[in-house]
Give the backbone structure.
Amino acid sequence: MPELVVTALLAPSRLTLKLLRAFMWSLVFSAALVAAAVYGCIALTHVLCRPRRGCCGRPRRTPPACLSDPTLGEHCFLTLKSSGLRLHYVSAGRGNGPLMLFLHGFPENWFSWRYQLWEFQSHFHVVAVDLRGYGSSDAPKDVDCYTIDLLMTDIQDVILGLGYPKCILVSHDWGALLAWNFSIYYPSLVERLVVVSAAPMSVYQDYSLRHIGQFFRSNYVFLFQLPWLPEKLLSMSDFQILKTTLTHRKRGIPHLTPNELEAFLYDFSQPGGLTGPLNYYRNIFRSWPRPHCCCGGRRTHILNWGWWRPSAAVLCPAGWRPTSCQVWGTGSHRATQRKCTSTCGPSCKTCWTSGPC
């Protein structure tokens, strides 16, 4: 009898949640269709302006030479204990030093951290991974294989699989979203947390609702909810949309050479190379945002490039500001790929407080 009463009392709440979820998905897919129309026009324009490139991406048969640069480190694979998947990573530096683990964003791979691998290998054991679905790492096809929980477990397995009890976690873009969550749910594995140009997902969603401009700038997130169409649009005219994203004067990678551009396009040109990375986005609306607090080890570093300045108070709550350090700068969102030509730090005027070097 008590169970029937409880079920009856909860019925209105359950129905309300189902209706809200249905309403949310209707809005998401409506926005996705609008975004698909916009990006479809952009992709078609690229095809018409560059007809020799065709409608599909050109498959790259051999990787560019910069991906095998021996000065960046040794290419290795690690079989994850929890999932059995193999992740590719590049390792360099002092094997007995502290582990500095790098997590990249989209549309990138381990090569995003080439300057940091060079810079820190004399003092740390530096490891840059290809996240699940990227590059030479295994890429399950099922969307459910890219939930935040599974991706966090991958990070845990990498740290422990390399033989370390904890790490200095350095992250950017999608890697930063994972790092925020990881530092909360696995605080004992994070000695220090460095986040570049990304806020926790809950802050991002709240900011987007309060600042409509950010909502429109994130239109691609809605496009990526659709099956197969985003892969087709991104690959048209030999991945011109991705090329524009990576080489944009303000939001792209500063001083990116053609050879370095190919380091990213090579992976995406392989069969199914775009589906894994896009599945990260296809899981965004499948769960409500998680609560966030500071569990980032001894010290948390947040490197912000202008974009999140209005939400600084939310991004860095007063309760944990004494253990954190925010460094503001201007220039590209992809600041991790800007070579520093002087002593790195807040006093480095060239790299930290101005545009590209």
Notes: Residues 65-206+285-338 form a domain with the Rossmann fold fold (CATH 3.40.50.1820). The chain is about 40% helix and 15% strand.
